[in-house]
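Entry for S-adenosylmethionine complex. Fields follow.
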Amino acid sequence: MPTRDWNATSYDAISAPQQAWGASVVERLQLSGHETVLDAGCGTGRVTELLLARLPRGRVVAVDGSQSMAETARLRLDPRRVEVVCSDLLELELPARLDAAISTATFHWILDHDTLFARIRATLRDGAQFVAQCGGVGNINRVRTIGAELAARAPYGEHLAAIGELWNYATVEETTERLERAGFEVAACWLEPKPTTPPNPREFLTTVIFSPYLERLPEELRDRYLDDLLPALGDPLVLDYVRLNWDAAAAGAA
Ligand SMILES: C[S@@+](CC[C@H](N)C(=O)[O-])C[C@H]1O[C@@H](n2cnc3c(N)ncnc32)[C@H](O)[C@@H]1O
């Protein structure tokens, strides 16, 4: 089943910060070059492309729940070496056991990490690496607080009051426990502050951070919300990103 859709054209144009973080995660994988690797939450496939460059004789299974993200990734990536699957990661089922998994800037969008990690473990052979990065505890606290305070006020409050939890910004301890419960051995798990000024602040907030708010607002209030939000966040806009990283391996024979 697909998940919530993203504006893939916009994300592809403005996601330089995510691409830079993703590149360093790809570098953490230890590869011989012939492996088959899962990219969990591939987006438009830019990080997948970097992963593929490290797999001259290998393959990638790239999964994303957004139809427009998956379609854009399909257009970008060589179909002879990449299978793009549009699926909710919480329902992921793959026929073969893969050699490794990577994920960048995705897992904080998924609230149930126990199910998520169990699904990923089930796609991997024993000993497979699982290297990931996502938002961690404290991620964009300042920005989220200002955005939520504005969202609670008129004329936005009546549309956004029932929005509920959108993100899962977990701690190192919670994540280590969840990974171990799902059958992974955790070599390292850590938080990394990444204060970021995005290249196009208004579009970045629209497409990435506040898209769940904006899609719940009536069309005529969307620009107004951003007009109110941007000055409240300050100029230059600094997003107080905190990334959660881990290097793990599927427990069992290597
Ligand atoms: C910020 S993008 C990151 C994309 C890419 N990894 C990158 O670093 O550019 C987050 C992606 O996670 C995907 N995503 C969120 N929840 C998902 C879920 N439950 N199942 C599959 N994909 C999901 C979104 O569709 C989106 O493409």
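NOTE: The longest strand covers residues 184-196.
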